[in-house]
Write a structure and sequence with these properties.
Elements: H1 4-12, E1 17-23, E2 26-34, E3 41-46, E4 52-54, E5 66-67, E6 73-79, E7 86-92, E8 99-100, E9 113-115, E10 121-128, E11 131-138, E12 149-154, E13 158-163, E14 169-174, E15 184-189, E16 195-199, E17 206-211, E18 219-224, E19 231-236, E20 241-244, H2 247-253, H3 257-260, H4 263-284, H5 287-290, H6 294-303, H7 310-327, H8 330-341, H9 349-366, H10 369-385, H11 391-403, H12 408-425, H13 432-437, H14 440-449, H15 453-473
Antiparallel strand pairs: 1-2, 2-3, 3-4, 5-6, 6-7, 7-8, 9-10, 10-11, 11-12, 13-14, 14-15, 15-16, 17-18, 18-19, 19-20
Length: about 475
């Protein structure tokens, strides 16, 4: 029987399961990574019974792999001692010896393996001497592999590919210039390597989510953050057309067979819809109404936990915390930002910074002034260390430090001066990120004008609609 002194150790030694996949055409067969042996290894997953069976036994472990649509093979990158130079190999689902799918090729680094929905084509990107190469391998009906074919090379980063269902089209993410944070997409003919089309948004990231699950259909579900938040779109490569999906259309699309047939589609559509709904409440200031979304979101985050990466969950926690902050429930705000603060700081350092700032403002609203001085110093040091201090954050910290020393009347004067300073910074393009994470202007205006923050934002929303109407009428 475990003692109280060892319970915490057992908690952190509980085996984990990650990256669950189910074979599209053999739903009783799946693939997961688990550290049940002490090191993450790939395991064959009997979906019906839940039983796991180890497929790999490497000293350095294996955490990423892919299962073929027919469930016959599992693929992974087998590098030497974890140095990221190796070969893609495959092993039968029943187990056995892993065999290289690129025999005779020098070891290579890569970014993952793509498999067409029909299972007839494999693809991956390699790099050498500053050039990125798109490679494909044909898979015959009996499982035999064709030779490696290099269909295109580029001097900029390539990630992918995502294949059309029949493997005729390969879509990759690329960057337009070195060290760029912008992502574009390029579609290639896998038979000839010819470029079929490119899709890009100015100063934004565009990347693939999934492809239509039937042969001959070249449509692709993608995401763009050109509006400031991620929005879905459909790119029809063959026709060269693009359809940006608005929220109402996406909600009607969600129950369709195309979405429900594919786990990745279900997850991505859920994320897009719920984030859009929350953002709509942010724009309108209807924070209290937005809280009705939270139970459903929490339920789905639990349901999709095997498919969602950690950063998506952190974003939802920050958005939920912001809903509670805007509705005036500062204690629950603190509960949700703690879920971010308690994560490793190397994951989404931007969210780590603004979660701490929101945490600080929540304590200010609660009147926990005994905590404010040490907490303000702590958050300031953290953001400085993360190199996340811009002029707007420095003004926030300056006000919070000074406000602890002033009378109520003097605080009002300081708030008015603070408001003028940050309004001046609103149009500064180097300060835009701070305003995207935290509507500090509306918060200060609520203090100056003695109104709830939600009312301030709602009035701005109504005024913006009137302004847009006048512009259209003109």
């Amino acid at each position: 029987m475990a003692t109280s002194s060892t319970l915490w150790k057992e908690r952190f030694r509980v085996p984990l399961v990650r990256g669950a996949q189910v074979a599209a055409d053999a739903p009783t067969r799946g693939l997961v990574a688990s550290n049940v042996s002490g090191v993450f290894q790939l395991h064959a997953w009997d979906v019906a019974s839940g039983q796991l069976r180890a497929l790999t036994n490497r000293a350095t472990g294996v955490i990423a792999g892919a299962i073929s649509p027919d469930g016959r093979f599992v693929y992974y990158h087998d590098d030497a001692g974890g140095n990221e130079l190796g070969h893609f190999v495959r092993v039968p689902f029943e187990g056995g010896t892993a065999a290289s799918i690129t025999p005779g090729v020098p070891p290579y680094p890569t970014f993952g393996l793509g498999i067409s929905g029909a299972g007839n084509r494999l693809g991956f990107v390699t790099a050498d001497e500053g050039v990125y190469h798109v490679n494909v391998i044909d898979v015959r009906a009996d499982g035999a592999l064709g030779p490696l074919r290099r269909i295109q090379s580029r001097p900029r980063l390539l990630i992918g590919p995502a294949f059309s269902h029949d493997g005729a089209i390969a879509v990759l993410v690329t960057t337009p210039e070195a060290r760029s944070l912008r992502y574009e997409m390029v579609a290639l003919d896998t038979a000839t390597g010819r470029t079929l089309g490119e899709l890009a948004d100015a100063n934004a990231r565009v990347y693939a989510v999934g492809v239509a699950p039937r042969s001959g259909d070249g449509r692709l579900l993608a995401v763009t953050n050109q509006s400031g938040v991620e929005r879905p779109l459909i790119w029809d490569v063959a026709r060269g057309s693009r359809l940006d999906i608005v929220l109402d259309e996406l909600e009607r699309f969600e129950p369709s067979h195309v979405v429900q047939h594919h786990d990745n589609f279900r997850v991505q559509v859920f994320v897009s819809i719920q984030q859009a709904k929350i953002n709509r409440h942010f724009m309108r200031g209807t924070f209290s109404e937005g809280l009705s979304l939270v139970p459903h979101i929490i339920e789905k985050l639990e349901e999709f936990s095997l498919f969602l990466d950690k950063h998506r969950i952190l974003v939802f926690n920050y958005k939920i915390a912001s809903l509670y902050f805007g509705s005036g429930d500062y204690n629950t705000t603190i509960d949700y930002v703690q879920r971010i603060i308690n994560e490793p700081i190397d994951l989404r350092s931007d969210l780590q910074c603004y979660a701490r700032l929101l945490h600080l403002l929540a304590h200010y609203e609660l009147g926990n002034f005994g905590l404010m001085e040490p907490l303000t110093k702590s958050v300031f040091r953290f953001m400085a260390k993360m190199e996340n201090l811009t002029e707007i954050e420095e003004e926030i910290f300056r006000f919070l430090r000074n406000s602890l020393q002033f009378s109520r009347h003097r605080v009002r004067q300081e708030l008015e001066q603070f408001l003028q300073k940050i309004k001046h910074l609103e149009k500064n393009r180097f300060e835009t990120r701070a305003f995207a994470y935290l509507d500090i202007i509306s918060w200060v205006e609520s203090k100056v004008y003695g109104k709830p923050m939600s009312d301030i934002i709602y009035e701005k929303y109504l005024n913006s609609r009137k302004r847009n109407y006048r512009e259209i009428a003109a």
